[in-house]
Specification:
- The longest helix has 14 residues.
- This protein has a 22-stranded antiparallel barrel. It has a five-stranded mixed sheet with strand order 3-10-11-7-8.
- The radius of gyration is 25 Å and the shape is globular.
- Helix content is 6%, strand content 55%.
- By secondary structure, it is mainly beta.
Length: 717
């Protein structure tokens, strides 16, 4: 379907909100008089690896300031902070045993746990492992300095699973020392404590924070406890170099997993759980420690080097609700997953500034290597007649994944109004498995496989005027299966599904960026992405999902983002997205394992599940430096199909939130308080869906009306 037809089809009263800036643009010749014309701030981004003004980058990219993202929010999940980004869907699942669901332009939507299809970075260190699966739960939201979100073809310059790129940059310690204490309490027993110390002393900048969050959960069997510790040190040994040390610690000692609900269960009791969750005491425990080092060196006026290196360990133990009878199969790997993951990596980058044919040219080249060593064990989740405990060993293997990448890109302002940005990345990913559980009929399932791709990207920008820039970008991308997606074979055997191939995509986008003191900032983009060998679910029974390569998919859409400031202290924002994500080819799936005879046909034209066809976020905030402040938000999400067959879906919903607070300065102390109410009109809706859940338990209900009370105190020295 053409983009113009798609936009017309999605037209609604919601469209009018996003269309206001276009109408205003037509009236730019006679703006309303202003006694003091406001000058818009220049926003710099680094997500394309070349420092540039976001307005001058030929790509869809957004920057969210940390203070702005935290204002009026609970600081519990990063999904709170990403609503202002068009094309990005982030859902809080009210389930801390599973990660936040994040998808960008439909990539990552199939994920039922972890984040895949989207690359994640924190202070330049990958939070996405070499196989393409990531998580971002180790970030203390109270220390975020800014977030950059890159969408579209240029995301491919980050390699595997780059449907989009989310980069989090934490604060750096500067100025006089200060200490901050904060506490918040809210509905369903939510309680958060945090403290942060920052500043600069003896040439060393520091930011150190610890926080603790706990909740009883909105639903039964959904309590959780999470502890975070973060440290960032910066120093400049000389005028031409900078060293940054980052350390993180995450402890999730236990998070109960309420699982999803069927439609009937959801209608009867949205706070309830399936009986199997209680019988098997479904839950997860996660512990992670990570250390990273970034060294920046200015070699001379034209050359600079950056070396990033990191290492970490993450352990996960998860208890699932797999029936005892299913585990009786001698080849079944059990209902307890025990993962120990050690990971490490390095990225060496060179930046060179020169001129070509008299015009400025910036080149960036580098090599990256990342490595993951996984010890995967499976146990029965029962012992005798007792359920939900660690039983007999049923799986034991060592899995290794590594990637070796090389990249080169450049930006050339070849004419006064024109600039060209292009890049090339070559990625090679290796999977290897060594089976250590060979017993009885369980054979040796050791094996290995490799994936590789060369990804070109090119973008062109035309500055029609100081206020209007036009751009177009095209590129290729690819996505390998994750270790969890190749963990089980559809034929019912043991070992990894090493026959699963990577998917490959071609993307195009075109857009306009405008900015003026009267109209604010507006970005609009249309895009089209075609993917071959899409990775899709083949079976989902007995608590295990297996995957296969289907045919082609198509993702086409439109994105609008607008923001403006009024009267110095009032800010309005709108993010609107339309996305048509469909299977272009039919394929078949199985209702049982082993999958010898596919029984269900997925028709061409079916919508890709987990993707909303339209979404809207709008907010209005009044935030003077001191005194009273307040804000309101509205969010609309369209109907989301829950399975490939499109037989069930979460209905569309619209919810509203409001908050009010006060900030007071008394000598060296700064005090602030906040009261926030979410889901003001107490709507019943599904906050997320578990895609292709084998028991039909697709729905994860969102809470009704909830409240939050927060207070903080900052002491400056």
């Amino acid at each position: 379907m053409p983009i113009t037809s798609l936009a017309s089809r999605a037209a609604s009263p919601l469209w009018l909100i996003a269309a206001v800036p276009f109408h205003a643009l037509g009236q730019a010749g006679s703006p309303a008089p202003s006694p003091q014309p406001r000058t818009l701030s220049q926003i710099t981004v680094t997500a394309t690896r070349i420092d540039a003004l976001a307005f001058d980058v030929p790509a869809s990219i957004d920057r969210i300031e940390g203070d702005e993202a935290r204002a009026g929010r609970a600081q519990t999940n990063i999904s709170e902070m990403l609503g202002t980004v068009p094309g990005l869907q982030a859902r809080d699942r009210q389930n801390y045993a599973q990660d936040v669901q994040i998808s960008v332009r439909g990539f990552g939507a199939r994920s039922t746990f972890g984040i895949r299809g989207v690359r994640l970075y924190v202070d330049g260190i990958p939070a996405t492992l070499p196989d393409g699966q990531g998580q971002i739960s180790h970030v203390d939201l109270g220390t975020i300095g800014r977030i950059e979100v890159l969408r579209g073809p240029f995301s491919a310059l980050y390699g595997n699973s780059s449907g989009g790129v989310i980069q989090v940059f934490t604060e750096e310690g500067r100025g006089a020392p200060q200490v901050q204490f904060d506490v918040s309490a809210g509905s369903d027993g939510a309680l958060r404590f945090g403290t942060k110390a920052s500043g600069q002393s003896g040439g060393i900048g520091y930011v150190a924070s610890i926080s603790r969050f706990q909740t009883d959960g909105y639903r039964e069997h959904s309590s959780a406890e999470r502890n975070l510790g973060n440290l960032k040190l910066t120093t400049k040994p000389d005028d031409d170099s900078k060293v940054t040390l980052i350390a993180n610690s995450l402890s999730l000692p236990q998070a109960d997993d309420p699982l999803g609900l069927t439609r009937a269960q959801w209608a009867a009791n949205p706070r309830g759980v399936d009986p199997s969750a209680l019988a098997f005491n479904t839950r997860k425990a996660v512990h992670q420690t990570q250390l990273g080092l970034v060294y920046d060196r200015r070699v001379d006026a034209a050359n600079a080097l950056q070396l990033t290196t990191y290492l970490g360990r993450r352990t996960t133990v998860q208890y699932q609700s797999i029936p005892v009878a299913t585990q009786a199969n001698a080849l079944h790997p059990g209902g307890v997953i025990d993962l120990g993951r050690d990971y490490r990596g390095a990225d060496l980058r060179w930046t060179h500034q020169t001129r070509l044919l008299g015009a400025p040219l910036t080149l960036v080249g580098g090599v990256a290597y990342d490595d993951l060593n996984e010890q995967r064990r499976g146990f029965q989740n029962f012992s005798g007649a007792t359920l939900g405990v660690t039983g007999a060993l049923r799986r034991d293997e060592k899995n290794d994944v590594s990637n070796a990448d090389q990249y080169l890109q450049g930006s050339w302002a070849f004419a006064p109004q024109w600039s060209l940005t292009a890049g090339l990345r070559h990625s090679q990913i290796r999977f290897r498995s060594r089976d250590q559980y060979i017993a009885g009929s369980n054979p040796d399932d050791s094996g290995s496989t490799r994936y590789s791709a060369t990804l070109p990207v090119v973008g062109l920008m035309y500055a029609a005027s100081r206020e209007v820039h036009l751009f177009a970008t095209a590129g290729r991308g690819f996505e390998t299966p994750t270790l969890n997606e190749i963990a089980y074979r559809s034929g019912g055997g043991t070992g990894l599904n090493l026959g699963l191939q990577s998917s490959r995509s071609k993307s195009f986008e075109a857009g306009v960026k405008t900015r003026s003191a009267q109209l604010g900032e507006l970005t609009a983009a249309v895009f089209a992405t075609g993917t071959d060998d899409e990775i899709v679910t083949q079976t989902n029974v007995g608590g295990r999902s297996t995957f296969q390569n289907a045919g082609a998919t198509r993702r086409n859409g439109l994105e609008l983002g607008w923001s403006n400031d009024y009267f110095d202290n009032v800010r309005a924002q709108v993010a609107y997205s339309v996305l048509r994500a469909r299977y272009a080819d039919a394929f078949t799936t199985c209702a049982a394992t082993p999958c010898t005879t596919p029984t269900q046909r997925i028709a061409a034209g079916n919508r890709i599940p987990g993707v909303a066809p339209a979404s809207l976020f709008a907010s209005l905030a009044w935030a003077p430096p001191l005194g009273w402040r307040a804000g309101a938000e509205m969010r609309y999400v369209g109907k989301v199909y829950a399975n490939d067959a499109n037989t069930d879906a979460a209905p569309a919903y619209a919810v509203a939130a409001a908050y009010a607070g006060y900030k007071l300065q008394e000598g060296p102390w700064e005090w602030s308080g906040l009261l926030r109410v979410d889901n003001l009109f107490d709507r019943r809706y599904a906050g997320s869906v578990i895609v292709n859940e084998g028991n039909g338990r697709f729905f994860e209900p969102a809470p009704g009306r909830t409240w939050l009370l927060a207070m903080s105190a900052t002491r400056r020295f």
